[in-house]
Write a structure and sequence with these properties.
Length: about 190
């Protein structure tokens, strides 16, 4: 429980939106380091996976959920950020509002805050889905009224006879197990 609190304490909503960056390289860690050296905060969703250690015993390590996506907080102007992206030695692409637009798509701070909370690697009843899979899931917009996810919003979806709260942002979606009775429909 103490580690969960540590993760939650590191997630802060400071009102700044985020960029989603698609990578065309396997050097996700190096790209993250590049942006961090430029003074930008980065986020990569991770989960625990069990691997065989050198001694032959299983051990858990944190690994990225997807290898071609990184999120960067918009703490500088678009012009400055564009320059940093262009100077990168890596093949990357910032997700744009549309194919024709040069304007970057920004993920609102409240959506990214909830998404980062839902990506807590200590939570085990969680599923990651692609954007395409998330769009195929039918579900009503809900607000969680009770429990540890109180105040979060998303779509209530059903998978394998269980209910999940689905939070979707460009490139990825995350589903956390939730009980149906703790959710109320969002007012339109």
């Amino acid at each position: 429980m103490e580690e969960t609190t540590k993760y939650i304490d590191t997630i802060v909503d400071d009102g700044l939106p985020w960029y989603a960056i698609k990578l065309f390289t396997v050097r996700q860690g190096e790209v993250r380091t590049y942006f961090e050296e430029e003074g930008l905060e980065c986020f990569i969703p991770e989960q625990y996976v069990t691997i065989e250690g050198r001694d032959g015993k299983p051990r858990e390590i944190l690994r990225p959920v997807v290898r071609n996506l990184i999120f960067v907080k918009q703490s500088i102007s678009d012009k400055q950020f564009r320059k940093i992206v262009q100077e990168a030695d890596y093949k990357i692409s910032v997700i744009r509002k549309s194919r024709d637009s040069q304007e970057y798509s920004l993920i609102p701070h409240n959506q990214m805050y909830e998404f980062r909370l839902m990506c807590n690697p200590e939570v085990t009843m969680r599923k990651f889905v692609s954007s395409e899979e998330a769009h195929l899931k039918a579900g009503d917009e809900v607000l969680v009224k009770f429990g540890p996810m109180k105040g979060m919003t998303g779509r209530l979806v059903r998978s394998n006879k269980k209910y999940y709260l689905l939070k979707e942002i460009p490139g990825i979606g995350v589903m956390l197990k939730v009980t149906k009775w703790c959710c109320v429909p969002m007012k339109k």
